[in-house]
Amino acid sequence: MAETLQFDLVSPERRLASVAATEVQIPGAEGDLTAMAGHAPTITTLRPGVLKVVGPEGAKSFVVTGGFADISATHVSVLAERAVPVEELTPALMDQLIADASEATAVAVDKDAADKAMADLIAMRTAAGF
User: Fold this and answer.
1) Which candidate, 52, 84, 54, places its Cα nearest to that of 69?
2) Which H/E stretch holds residue 95?
3) What is the number of alpha carbons within 13 Å of residue 38 lying toward its C-beta?
4) Could you give the percent of the chain with pLDDT greater than 70?
5) pTM of the model
6) Own/partner pairs for 11-15, CB < 8 Å, 24+ apart?
7) Which of the residues 11, 39, 45, 125 has the least number of beta carbons within 10 Å of its own beta carbon?
8) Once rounded to an integer, what is the mean pLDDT over residues 82-94?
9) Confidence class of residue 89 from pLDDT cuts 50, 70 and 90?
10) b/e 72-95 (16+ beta carbons within 10 angstroms → b)
11) What was the pLDDT predicted at 105?
12) What is the rounded CA–CA span in Å between residue 100 and residue 94?
């Protein structure tokens, strides 16, 4: 059996997961990465995307809109701006996430970063099947 690490995902609204995981696929701002037991200590910001956790009970996916991940050899903690289990995602909720991002993009100081975040949200919608 593969080694596991502790995975915790929290958002301002709630704790979404606290499980043993064999791998965590993270949509990092600088590129996607996979954390597994023994990973070098890393802190990364998140871009909008799908975070996937694989563990003894199978895989679970979450849509995240941003935040950061703190990774160590034994633990991954993700603090998300907003996170929703993929199975709870609805077209209306996906539209709301994109509308919220559109409002933020309109007033953003860094237009390039805001435009990239919007493109990531559109790609996330496609990846989530909407």
Assistant:
1) 52
2) helix 91-107
3) 3
4) 89
5) 0.81
6) 11/67, 11/79, 11/80, 11/81, 11/82, 11/83, 12/81, 12/82, 13/82
7) 45
8) 88
9) confident
10) beebbbbbbebbbeeeebeeeebe
11) 60
12) 10
Lowest pLDDT segment from 53-57, 85-89, 106-110: 106-110
Report which of 7, 4, 6, 31 is spatially closest to residue 80, judged by C-alpha positions: 7
Longest dimension (CA), the chain: 49
Strand segments, DSSP code E, in 65-109 are 67-71, 75-80, 83-85
Rounded Cα distance between 115 and 76, Å, is: 28
Contact between 44 and 60 under an 8 Å Cβ cutoff? The reply is no
Q: What is the pLDDT of residue 98?
A: 75
Give the H/E segment covering residue 54: strand 49-55
Both structure tokens of 43: 């802190």
Alpha carbon 59 to its chain's center: 14
Asked whether 28 and 42 are in contact (CB, 8 A), the reply is no
